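Quick one:
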Amino acid sequence: MSAALPLLILGFPIVGAVLLAGRGWRWPRTLTKLVGPGAVWLSFLVVLAAFYTSSYGDFTYWRWIKSGPFDVPMNLQLDHLSLFMCLVITGVGALITTYAVGYMGHEDDPSYARFFCYMDVFVFSMLLLVLAGNFVFLIVGWAGVGLSSYLLIGFYYWRPSAVVAARKAFVMNVVGDVGMILGTFVLFFQVHATTYSAVFKAIPRQDSGALELAAFLFLVGAIAKSAQIPLHTWLPDAMEGPTPVSALIHAATMVTAGVYLVGRLHPLYDVAIYAHAAVALIGAVSALVAASIAIVQTDIKRVLAYSTMSQIGYMFVAVGIGAYSAAFFHLLAHAFFKALLFMSAGNVIHAMDDNQDMRVYGGLWRQLRPTSISFLVGSLALVGVIPFVGFWSKELILGSAFSAGGNPVAVYAWGIGFLTALLTGFYTGRMWWLAFWGQPSERRPVAHPHEAPRVMLVPVIVLAVLSTVGGFIQTTALGLGPHLVDDFLAPAVGVFKAENPFALVLGITTMLLAALLFLTAYLFYVPLGERVAGFWDRLAEVSVSHPRPWSARFPRLQLLLERKLYFDELYDAVFVRPLDWLAVEGERFFDVPVVEGSLSGVATLVQDSAGGLSWVENGFFRRYALVFMGGAVLAGLLLVFIASRG
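Output:
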């Protein structure tokens, strides 16, 4: 029975996708609403059954490929780590697909079924990625996630911007796929095995060039999928997809695949010390860069996209210093509050007639109160304010980095993470005060917006509750209380032991400063005449003048951040333009004269030959008889010649 559970977890989403692909466009919409989210909910129930029955194991069903030492079984691994990931994928995924029932309600029937088909394919691919028991199935799931994300990002295929964004995401992820494949080859040639259990047993205890190479190649795949520097530029553009796609793929599941990969391959990274340190450094730099760029974004979904990149950077820091359970705790917390933020933003976008510029919102607190409260809960969790879940997980990472004595990389990562936390408080406050407080903007597209329907509000409220109380399953950021995530994941990733008496003080200080910057954004972005009476009015009275926007003081820095540090322009100059030039010149000097010329030459030769032989077909019998006799004579002479040679 235990062996059947992984198959059922995978089976329900793929069956739902097949049904929707085959008959969904002919079904009544009600049936699509049941099958699309229902497949994910059923998978979630099976995951819960596996959790409560402790059905762990490495289940081999049959041998798929056997060629010499290359032995690939059909095996799925259900351990504490994969079960943890399945809980996140199916639990949060089920809430998001339910939310999508209402959000996508305006689509016509074929597109409606197509959307849920793509969603189920994505959930299946992500589940295969985390349940795979060998590197080949890992790559299959990895590629499936890339394909389904391409389909979902480009769902609105009639929009050129969506097509370009989907193509950009696909190309970036393929770069990572190549790294994954090459890393698998390097490991296979070293240990002659493909299954996790066999590979991890055969990995030597001492670092080597081959292990470092394999670890760095896998890191390429991780940073591409998780949108870390330098393969991060696809993530903000991916906001062209529907908002439920952003919530599922770019908040709760796909972008965390890189974190899962490093955690799954921790026996390799624990040995490959240079690649392991690179994970932490890349994560720290990505977190800081993304938080800086988020300060100047005006599209509410792009702010959340860069926030996602920044929070994934925290997870990379944690797995890079060996604090694996802290990383996965933040992965869980991030799934709660970031899915909440994206879905709440979706409610606002729905109410604002699909306008995503938060500068034209304002005053939504009075008109969309449930969504405004939910967005505020998600924002405070993102900032890391106690008691919300983000405080417990983020401070656990920063505390682990600060306490990792003897690891200079961890100290640098902590410093960058501390600065990033402060920037997070400011840009999150800017986003909330601009969108929800003050007076309605004169440019607002809808004067009297309506709250989202229940099918969209209920999942948002559930996630708001989880974002509020979910952190209490592990409160070790304060040095006391339960540590359920550590205990659950210990059999899979071990225990990170590091204690420092100053970690708690620094954690509280970080939270207070981040919260203060959240409030400071109020002074910058809410005009004096629109501020609420009370404390802030009194604060405004004692202030000398209304603070000018920081961008007015640093216009060059503003431009640098608005252009996203010119990463896109750099890639365009280094890769896109040279390849375009090579394609044009190749067409001019090789494709047209050689390839097309050879084909045209053959066609011309055949045509001329046919024209030359057409004289024999004039309708006179005597000419046909002459040709026949001539052919017979030639055939006879040929036979005589062959016989004489023999």
